[in-house]
Amino acid sequence: MTQPLPLILDVDTGIDDAMALLYAAASPDADLVAVTCVAGNVPGEQVAANTLAVLELAGRSDVEVALGRESPLLRPLKTAEDTHGPRGIGYAVLPPARARVSARSGVDLIAEEARRRPGELTLVTLGPLTNLAAALQVEPRLPRLLRRVYVMGGAFRVQGNTTPAAEWNMQVDPEAAWMVYRAWATALDADPTIARPVVLGLDVTERSPIRPDHVIRLARLAGSRIDDPIARADGEEPLLPAVPAAGNPMVRFVADALRFYFEFHAKWDGFYGAHIHDPMVVVAALDPALARTQAVFVDVETGSGPAGAMTVADFRGLTGKPPNVDVATELDGAEFLGRWVTRVGALALALYPPDAG
Ligand code: RIB
Ligand code: CA
To test ligand 1's pocket by mutation, which of 126, 151, 173 has the most ligand atoms within 8 angstroms of CB? Predict the structure, then answer.
């Protein structure tokens, strides 16, 4: 096996961010160097508390967790407790982590680690781009210093999920996104060999929802007794396993976090399942061949009109501007979910074997 890929995850933990953290912790091909936290789904301090607690659940209390920006660059913070629950992890409850947040800021961590390990680190952003934009102000050479950047954000040929034009991570801080894509465009003008950010928008992250049967498969892989799944009133779709039957703490966390997300999607999207956007990006970062991409010039609308926070992709080359982003156009969703279930299930079994009582 090649060397594990050194990763920094930038998160706004959130339910799907938590699923991404579990996947990273469960992946032998990932070297999780650090996690930086940004305000988004919930306020920054709650993001940090959730991230520390999820990493402890996953046996990774050793990973440095640093809190970055607690508000967007210019705008007041908007959060999404309706989507992710009052504390950002759905119905799940986790004990406070023993580990403490780092003394350095998440913004400084990104700049300092990129300087210390030039060309080695892959940054995966799973929330608003505020921390990366702020880190670019600290260290403008980041496009050259980072090995690669993977972004969860945007909607390129599909509608937004927050407004008709905007995806959530872009909507929270459009100025940050604008700065990031412009910074890479400028860096690429000077050095076309720089790796363009790989961006997974809703075009790919909303194609393969996770469903109750994935959670039940996860529970079984983890050795949990699923002896009484609750059948839905309509009998069509089994709900998540009865949580008390899932004796495994990681399965219980996944089941309770996702149950909230499933109810949100059932209400707003008409299906009992969930788009877990963020882990898809970690899967793609660890296995770039999984996603098909198209190099394209992307700009971000920062106005306050109906197109505000829209990621505008020049697929036809009408602007004449060279590509600054690799936009993901296809990704094998079944493969993504299969890997997520298999790896997280194996981690849950390893950390909390059923005979441990
Ligand atoms: O639009 C989906 C993105 O917004 C995901 O990163 C989710 O966690 C939320 O932050
Ligand atoms: Ca997120």
Answer: 126
CA dist 97 to 57, 93, 94, 100, Å? 9, 12, 8, 7
Listed as ranges, residues in the chain with pLDDT below 50 are 228-233, 235, 244
Angle made by CA atoms 120, 342, 81, in degrees to the nearest 5: 75
Pocket of ligand 1 (CB under 6 A): 12, 14, 16-17, 40-41, 126-127, 152, 161, 167-169, 277-278
**Residue 159, token pair as written in the block:** 């509608």
> How many helices and strands (H and E) does the chain possess?
13, 10
Residue 197: give its domain's CATH number: 3.90.245.10
Neighbours of 20 (CB within 10 A): 28
pTM of the model: 0.96
**C-alpha closest to that of 212 among 137, 263, 158:** 263
* Full domain range(s) for residue 189: 5-208+274-339
pLDDT in tens, 280-314: 999 999 999 999 999 999 999 999 999 999 999 99
Assigned domain for 229 exists: no
